[in-house]
Amino acid sequence: MKNEIVLLLLIVVAGTGGELCVARAMRAVGPATNFQPAALLRLIRRALQNGWMWLGFLLMAVGFFSLLEMLSLENVSFVVPVTALSYGLGALGGKVFLREQVTRRRWAGVLLVCLGVGLVLIGRP
Amino acid sequence: MKTFASFPSKIYLLLVLMVILGPLGNVLLGKGMKHIEATSWNPADVLHFLARLSASGSIWLGIVCLMAFFAVYMLVLSWADYSYVQPASAMAYAMVALLAHFVLGEVVTPMRWMGVLIICLGVLVVGQTPPRTTEYKE
Question: Is B2's pLDDT higher than 50?
Fold first, then answer.
């Protein structure tokens, strides 16, 4: 069980940290303006030139391999909902790291998500 | 904001794609991992573990789905806040429960279904907030 707790922490913290870095890179890159393959490739190339994107990849890879290991220990319907704990961390990261406006309504939604996660844990067969 | 406003239907389309591709990838990985034993951190065991991973069709298909998911995710993040996109993508939890139940035959208890529903409700509440609250850095 101790091993599973460490894996869950890695999935949530590294996974969310990675996504926050990717979001920061995409904000720096700017909005996609059309869906032509050449334009999309240019967008991806610009994104790959941003250091935050690579840090994001690294952290997400740590989260991903932790998820793979966890999936070999537990059922997918248990593992995947538990990763919703990242919502609290994601909202906090959005506010502090990305300077997004996380309103009371948004926090209320995050709390509901955490409550749902608690029920998913309790509802383990 | 102007760019976001000019592509709302495409944003929703991409969010739907995310909700389909993410869970599908996870379920395929779950299906592949069912046949692979957990590993220790011993290097030889880790190598054996990786060799078995690379021999699984389900694992590869799952990885392709998750890569497609990530490309769509990058596009959406170029328009909207992380704290908006992340909750929107959580609509996938209902789909995970459905796939786990109907595809993998896993037991999903009523309590767990309730949890999934409350997660989705939270996602809807967050989804009512403005999609973008920051400016692009030039």
Answer: no
Chain A residues in contact with B119 (beta carbon < 8 A): 81, 84, 112-113, 116-117, 120
Helix, strand or coil for residue A49?
Answer: coil
Residue B85 CB neighbours (<10 A): 26
Distance CA A101, CA A94 (A): 8
**DSSP three-state, residue A102:** coil
Give the span between the Cα atoms of B33 and B59, in whole angstroms. 8
C-alpha radius of gyration, chain A, whole number:
17
Please give the DSSP secondary-structure letter assigned to residue A84.
Answer: G
The residue type of A120 is V
Q: Is A76 in Cβ contact with B106 (below 8 Å)?
A: yes
Number of domains in chain A: 1
User: What pLDDT is stored for residue A93 in this prediction?
Assistant: 93
- Chain A (59-118) residues lying within 8 Å, Cβ to Cβ, of chain B: 64, 67-69, 71-73, 75-81, 84, 86-87, 90-91, 93-95, 98-103, 105-106, 108-118
A76 and B106 Cβ atoms separated by less than 8 Å = yes
Proportion of chain A above pLDDT 70, given as a percent? 90
In A13-63, DSSP assigns E strands to none
DSSP state at residue B64: H
Which residues of B fall within a CB distance of 8 Å from A42?
none
pTM of the complete model: 0.74
CB B133 within 8 A of CB A100: yes
> A98 near A23, Cβ under 8 Å?
yes
